[in-house]
# Entry
Amino acid sequence: MGVPGRLIMMMMPITPKFVVHWVAKRYVAGPDLDSAIKVMRAMKSQGACFTLDVLGEEITSLAEAEFFVNEYHRALDAIVAEGMDANISLKPTAFGLLIDEEKAIENIEHITRIAAKNDIFVRLDMEDNRVTQSTIDIVTEMHERGHRNIGTVLQSRLFRTSDDIAHLSSKLGGNSDVRICKGIYLEPEDIAHTGYHEIVAATNQTVDELLDAGSYTAIATHDIPVINYSLTSLAERGMGPGIEDPRSNAGQARKGKGPGYEFQMLLGVRGNIRRKLSAQGHRTRVYIPYGGRWYEYSMRRLRENPDVAWHVAKSIIMPWTNRR
Ligand code: FDA
# Structure
């Protein structure tokens, strides 16, 4: 991050909330489920499907988990009522993972069961390295209990990720379903790549590993070199729009899934590239965060990854770029 980015970071705590709101509104659907539904309705014609995410993480008392359980239940009901091609993503620490692991598992299983009734997929977002192993363990535990509609996210910046891919595919076979992303959390250099080029190389490698392992591969990136690399990797494996997943160990086609892979992007980021991929026939998914905690979410993202400061600066200097 350059000097301008550092300056913006320093100024964020004293920036009026309405300014942060103005910047955040591009990336967050709104304060409630209704706003998320409106965004999905408006974007449906762009050929995308969706992931709903209720903003919030790392609760401090188990009572707070109840809010998330109820809100995700409402979100699942809305997906069904609206007939949306959508699934959900949740953060295990919002369900109590750092307070009481057993209770968190109970909460997550409850939501996974409700989702399964409508064949809706549940993805556990991946948080920082304190919970990498326990998040993976919850997914394998859920599969052992017979829930097939659950998967997680792996972060290519972590050195451990290739082993995690191998572990998940050996445990779950073709039922492994992984979102691969660079990872938003700036992890220490003894466990993670820290340079851009190393992270891109690791992302490309892990996309290949997931494809070769027969996992459903959700490629979550806005980075053109990674997208282009992935398109080549898919083509080399005979995968692409309108082609059935040719891999022998790929799981049964599940409702709302593409031919073994999809591209995922965040609401408000590089919609032009997403629409282009969609027009080419690739399955694309937009991640839609919503909820009252948009301020905390925006500030936390900024603290975790100061590169976001550049996007904030851009929105202020070039306000016309601050569009979804
Ligand atoms: P990179 O950061 O290099 O961005 C490439 C380009 O995209 C930038 O140059 C810029 O033009 C644009 N861009 C990226 N972010 C932008 C922004 N905020 N505003 C405007 N433009 C932006 N991480 C994690 O740790 N756990 C998780 O569970 C998830 N889940 C997740 C879901 C989905 C659908 C996505 C797309 C991403 C995540 N991530 C995540 C975040 C991910 O790890 C990563 O931090 C971001 O996607 C940014 O990395 P890129 O690969 O996009 O590259």
